Structures
1.
Amino acid sequence: MTDRTKEGLAVTGLRKRYGDHLAVDDVSFTLAPGASLALVGESGSGKTTTVRMLVGLERPDGGTVRLDGRDRSARPRGRAERLARAREIQMVFQDPYLSLDPRVSVSGCLDEVLRLHTGLDAPARRARVAELLDQVGLGAREATALPRGLSGGQRQRVAIARALAVEPRVLVLDEAVAALDVSIQAQILDLLATIRREAGISYLFVTHDLAVVRHIADEVMVLKSGQVVEAGPADRVLDAPEHPYTRLLLASVPRRGWSPAGR
């Protein structure tokens, strides 16, 4: 028999329409356990709509989303199934400040997730909170802080720790380093690489910034107007792009001697 725990994420023919606008049109891809896929495109390309369907924030009009062979496309049947799905695929957003309760300390935020999704008692939850903070490079001082007392990079580490608390199979990172300074971006990308290596979590990294793709992705999928225009190994797509749109995106990345006029 096939070991279904090793199948990973499989998306087939995903579609989503808003009125007359077809936001996502026949998007298909696979994400193996422990792999990292970058979903690339400009604003309006369909990236965010695609991942919102994966995590259950939007219902697809067509296509299927399967994780380890289980169909996630249909509406969940009851609270238990809804929570189980939430544990499987977690999402980290661009601005963690908007998703953190400003009145709740970092440790309180993580404890809340553990109370909702686990049967751990209070001492076990405290130990797990300390473990999660250590995993993302934070300590006792940050544990007692409110979100406003943290830097942008520290808040993003908290958001990552919160997502890891339920031991997800897939972590969706939606422009997760876009709002950070370049030096902090590098720290978060290094942290994510370490977590993936040690925990074996699959990453779906959503970005418009090709400059960070090499550091996070094994594979790249390029979206334009809701359709996949190119996909393949990251090195091949970035070094020898086949589609004119991919070449345009790469030509737009600032580099030495670059100018907006292309001269």
2.
Amino acid sequence: MSATRRQILARSGALGVGIAFTGALSELFAGTAAAQDLGHTGYGPLVPDPNGLLDLPKGFRYQVLSREGDQLRSGEGPVPSNHDGMTALPARGGRVHLVRNHENRPTAKHAVPTVAGLTYDPAGKGGCTALTLDSCNNVLTVVDERVAIAGTAVNCAGGRSPWGTWLTCEETEDKAGTNGYTKDHGFIFEVDPADPHRTGAVPLTAMGRFQHEAIAIDPKRGIVYETEDAFLKPFGLFYRFLPHKPLGGVGSLRAGGRLQAMRVPGVPDLSTIQEPGAAFDGIEWVDVPDPLAAQTPVRLQDFGPKGITHAQKLEGCYWGGRCVYFVSSFARSADGSAADHYGQIWRYDPSARRLTLVIVFGPDTDVQLPGESPDNICLAPSGGLMVCEDGNGAQHVFGVTRAGEVYAMARGRQNIGTPDAPEWGEFAGVTFSPDGRTMYVNCYTPGTTFAVTGPWRR
């Protein structure tokens, strides 16, 4: 889940970091495994890695599972570039399927290799790869690594389904003829890591064509919530998709449904709401006139005289308890937002039809390092959050407790072992194994997938 830039603040020293916010941070863990916070404030100082890849606390160790440019175990081609959103799903025999997005644009160095039956648009360089992992004596082995979907574009985030598949989202709305594409882009695709050909490369068109970021599924009703990451005005919308076959299993979302956008009465722009705890009842859902955006982007379509509610940079989305949470990572009036903020986290309760602002982040601390520009977030099984940093200089994975205390969990060494690269590699796609014993995380560039093990439940 993506969150605000500039929300983790430096306190003192390289490892003394904190988080500035107003609101109830513990709210983020409602109804999740992380609700049982162990209360720890970290695992101790980071120990420099003699191999120059990943610094971790004492007692933890990492494995490099996969690196950009190496050959896929399947022999289909090189490991693609730009490792981004990721999930870990249970597989047969206690194994784990790791499904990894590749946020490839037309300029990507290593495209996702095209594979018959798994390629949507041969001109698209994005997609997903799937790794199958086995564990013996606490050593992970990659027993398979292959293309799961190809020919898509800018696969940023997504979300897992209740039936064990990954919904990968294209964060673009380029149409056929743009960048050499032969088909329209901006869709969600379902990926079955156990059998990618079972899901193929079929766009879930009824779920809309726009700059998708992430999704979350109501496990009881089967409603799919979707965020739109629109950086510049006109800003994105928060959507729900009402499937014709809710919770119908693999392939059921192809049956279609209704796409609707959220309207908060009297609030055309969420950035204007600055007080944590502010709540709005009677939330309305308005049918999207043209989900395929054949002529007009969805966020610019006519939603009637009352209009529709927009927000800048809608990113992360997850289900907790009986509600869906979503993030506006920042808003700037200089970009056209009605007000400024450094991050909001919202909760929507479908039973009460109530939207509540849970947390507002701030202030701006770009000049203070480390602790800049958090991106992907996941709930940690031992309690709290894990946050991937995406900023300047050294990059970290930070842990955040329910009390709002932040500690450094991992630090990437410059260029992740490739001295010819000009920048530090940001982290992305942090996720945990189904048993909670392994943290998986990507370095975005050069694309590297790590597995981190250690005393998580200490």
